[in-house]
Design a protein that fits this description.
6 strands; two-stranded antiparallel sheet; 6 helices; 166 residues; alpha+beta; Arc Repressor Mutant, subunit A
């Protein structure tokens, strides 16, 4: 019953819902929510985990691409703001680790506000970026309304000297 209610809550949500919020809402621990999400996924629910919380996968009618970049951590905010300012959503970050293979982290950044919240969370949690595992080299899955917007994003990153196509 709780898992059905959790799924219904995610269906009705307009934005991602944090695990802590869901735990409080259902009167359980955050770990129980994590387990419920895993079970719902195993049953076929298309639930995504983002830096802002859980959400149901959404339909997308634009175009998608991947941008390889290489930069130090202090250029992260500039990189992400450059993309969202052009109307490009940054869906995730991927690094390729020599031992673990592909490591992916959901971002779901669409605006400067999203970027600011992400950067603040990294600072507040005193954690490192996933790209720190690969000396700053990483890939972002990105989405935009059209190919021209993605081309503008690629050019903007090249102008910043951080586009990596090696």
């Amino acid at each position: 019953m709780r898992r059905e209610d959790l799924l219904r809550t995610l269906e009705l949500a307009k934005e991602p819902l944090a695990g802590g919020y869901l735990a409080e809402r259902f009167g359980v621990s955050r770990q129980v929510i994590v387990q419920d999400i895993a079970l719902l996924r195993a049953e076929g629910a298309a639930i995504e985990a983002t830096t802002r919380g859980y959400r149901l996968a959404r339909a997308f009618d634009g175009v998608r691409d991947a941008f390889g970049v290489l930069h130090p951590p202090e250029a992260t905010e500039l990189e992400l703001n450059t993309l969202v300012d052009l109307g490009i959503a940054v869906i995730d970050v991927v690094v390729y680790h020599p031992i673990y293979g592909e490591l992916r982290g959901g971002l779901d950044l669409h605006s400067r506000r999203d970027v600011a919240q992400f950067v603040e969370r990294v600072r507040d949690q005193r954690t490192t970026l996933l790209s720190s595992l690969t000396s700053g080299r990483h890939v972002h899955t990105v989405e935009a309304k059209d190919v021209e917007t993605l081309k503008a994003g690629r050019l903007a990153l090249a102008d910043l000297g951080i586009l990596y196509e090696g």
